Amino acid sequence: MALSPGEEAPDFDLSSTENALLALRDEAPRLAVLLYVFRGEAGEGVRADLAALARARPGLTRLGARPLVLSPLPLAALAALQAELRLDFPLLHDDRDFAAAYGVAAAEDGEPPPAPALFLIGHDRRLLWLANPAGSVEGGLDEVRRRLAALAPASRSYPRAVLSRFVGRRVARNR
Fold first, then answer.
1. Is the peptide bond before 133 cis (omega within 30 degrees of 0)?
2. How far is the C-alpha of 156 from the C-alpha of 159, rounded, in Å?
3. 104-147 pLDDT, tens per residue?
4. Which among 15, 97, 132, 144 has most CB atoms closer than 10 A?
5. CA-CA distances (angstroms) from residue 91 to 20, 37, 54, 106, 167?
6. Using an 8 Å Cβ cutoff, are 16 and 94 in contact?
7. Which of 81, 72, 69 is nearest to 44 (CA)?
């Protein structure tokens, strides 16, 4: 199912390479999210896109956005990719096929994986912009920056319910 700007982005809660469960409903109220979705292996094009996201991350942060990467690759493979490319943003293990909810279809048998996609999600979880398929991250960054500059700033802090959930998980783990 194809998504359009203005529609609510599908929520997800996925394990990340930062040893946390990240949910869109928790991230979006405090920062806009630039979601990069890829299927298949992290080939040359995906690696170039991830490097472009890493270079753009400081500017995105200044504009109130956080990049997130969603992929069905195993969490260990994503962690290795993050370390290899020195990425300072989380990669999420899409073990429940949230990519399909965003309209990024799986490859048919014997077919190459589809091109990656980019989704810019605002504080209200509405899609502000998307490129599906995305030619490249580099090619979409000007439009992303323009859209982010037009956004009102968010709270920049997690809502109290989210903080309580994080603290509760940590306390439970340390018992």
1. yes
2. 9
3. 988 888 888 889 999 999 999 999 999 999 999 999 999 999 99
4. 144
5. 11, 10, 12, 19, 22
6. no
7. 81
CA distances 119 to 23, 35, 40, 44, 64, Å, are: 15, 5, 18, 21, 15
Query: What is the radius of gyration, based on Cα positions, of the chain?
Result: 16
Provide CB contacts within 8 A for 123, sequence distance 6+. Answer: 28, 29, 30, 31, 32, 151, 152, 154
- How many CA atoms within 13 Å lie on the side-chain side of 45? 17
Name all domains of the chain by residue range, CATH numbers in brackets. Answer: 13-173 (3.40.30.10)
Owner of token pair 């504009």: 63
Q: Is the dihedral of CA 8, 11, 90, 26 positive or negative?
A: positive
Inter-residue contact 45 to 4 (CB < 8 Å): no
Query: Minimal CA–CA distance to 165: which of 67, 20, 11, 35?
Result: 20
Query: Considering only 36-40, 78-82, 102-106, 150-154, which range has the smallest mean pLDDT?
Result: 150-154
- CB-count exposure of residue 126 (10 Å: 0-12, 13-18, 19+): middle
